[in-house]
Specification:
33% strand, alpha+beta, GMP Synthetase, Chain A, domain 3, 4 helices, 2 domains, homodimer
Chain lengths: 147, 147
Amino acid sequence: MAVEVFKSTTKLTEGVKVECTARNHSLVLDEPKELGGTDTGMNPLEAALCALGACKCIVARLFAKAHEIDLQDFKVDLEGDLDMDGVMGKNKDAKIGFLEIRSKVYIKSGSPKDKVEEFVRFIDKTCPVAASLADSPKMVTELTIEK
Amino acid sequence: MAVEVFKSTTKLTEGVKVECTARNHSLVLDEPKELGGTDTGMNPLEAALCALGACKCIVARLFAKAHEIDLQDFKVDLEGDLDMDGVMGKNKDAKIGFLEIRSKVYIKSGSPKDKVEEFVRFIDKTCPVAASLADSPKMVTELTIEK
């Protein structure tokens, strides 16, 4: 096993605005005004979908050559369904996470249709963000309280 | 059921640089140079950890009052372990997604320790990004090939 550790830090600032950093990079996540935020960035669910789609894009680029796929363009439109009754605690039996995530993959390629279809199935299986959603990681929380 | 649909778009540009958009917001995800990128943004795994931590931050803000928690500061440091032998296809039995995700929660609060601990457990259960990782969504891929 060759374990690599990925790290990020997220800090709540005013309202629901969150400053996020990873290595030398930062981004702001927030909520739109109708969900109580100031709309200075996308929200965490949108960011999670971006992470998923970007991961598929990168896997496509990295493995196209080995799969002999002509890759001219690659785009993913993502949609995730959330049951707000679950999130808001109105229905205790409702699922709280995404019910379904749809990845609409657009690829421009001169390769045969069946090879492209097989390649897209390979991407779905090989993308670590998709795999983290399909095959749950162990989730551990450690708490430090400052008075 | 009150389904709300969240949407993002991710487009592969040069190399492994991905332009991501959601509503009026955009961000660039990329890989560091040692992983074949140009390091113009965090990578998708770091972004996924940011989405998870930011989601917990926002749930903390939105529910602190109802739980009678004095919330002065809230931060989450996240670590996710990946087995690169799985990702790179060197070990077909290895897990491809995160093996474990550790959320190190730092909270500044004058509330009693047991109430804060209970609140943090509530956050873990109520955060939709955490719930999407713990309780897998249905994953659907639709493919459009352009010649």
